[in-house]
Amino acid sequence: MYPHRIRLRGPWECQPLVRFVPDADGHAESLAQPLPPKCRMTMPCRWGEGGLREFAGRARFTRHFGVPRQIDSYEQVWLTLGGVEAVADLWLNDAFLGHCRGSSGPYAIDVTSQLRDRNLLTIEVESKGTTGGLWGEIALEIRRTAYLDKVSLWAEYAQDAVRLHAAGEVAGSSQEQLEVYVILDRSTVAYALVEPGGTAFHLVSEPLASAELRVTHDHTRIHQVHVELIGGASVWYVVEQEFMFRAGA
After folding, report:
1. Are residues 207 and 91 in the same domain?
2. Which of 133, 148, 193, 212 could join 46 via S-S bond, C-beta 3.0 to 4.6 A?
3. 8 A C-beta contact, residue 170 and residue 195
4. For 110-168, what is each residue's pLDDT tens digit?
């Protein structure tokens, strides 16, 4: 089942590069300010929690890792970054990968062709506040050539029934027909044939009775929703989310 996730938790080397100090305009760089010494952190972590208390500025985080394993022709390796405060620049083996902002959501990029037997990942984080750092999980994802992207869930309420909506995109490529299933707890509630290549999908369940959802006015049950991309007999990609239906719906 895909994706296979390899979490890059730690230890990471952290080197402060520039300290920001307040001025009349708010914040400004000041190279004259003394910098904290290098340290190690386990990710995900905001730097204030990892030893850089009261620090605002730019810090470089580095981590070595080996190639995951032999990558088959139908697989790709993606670097994913769950969250950053506030902006970050990324390099892999000295090749610049890109720039991301915490406000733009999770970051992901295909790094299959850039992997070596031994690899160096460098992330420089810049924040004008003391809450800077990599607060979201950093991982390698081994994916099939087609995968789910931008998946969202919401509920539609009408009288005594509820419908579950699932929307997103099927990105990448495939030589075979693919299917998307929406599974609420252990039951399939929506299904469609899809084409890869950035194709959008929007699936809607049949009406779900409130009794089936086990929702009452004083208690709301947390449900597990799986959105699965299937090719033949193989699971190509799975998005798992917890979901709560509105009490009393």
Report:
1. no
2. 133
3. yes
4. 999 999 999 999 999 999 888 999 999 999 999 999 999 999 999 998 877 789 999 99
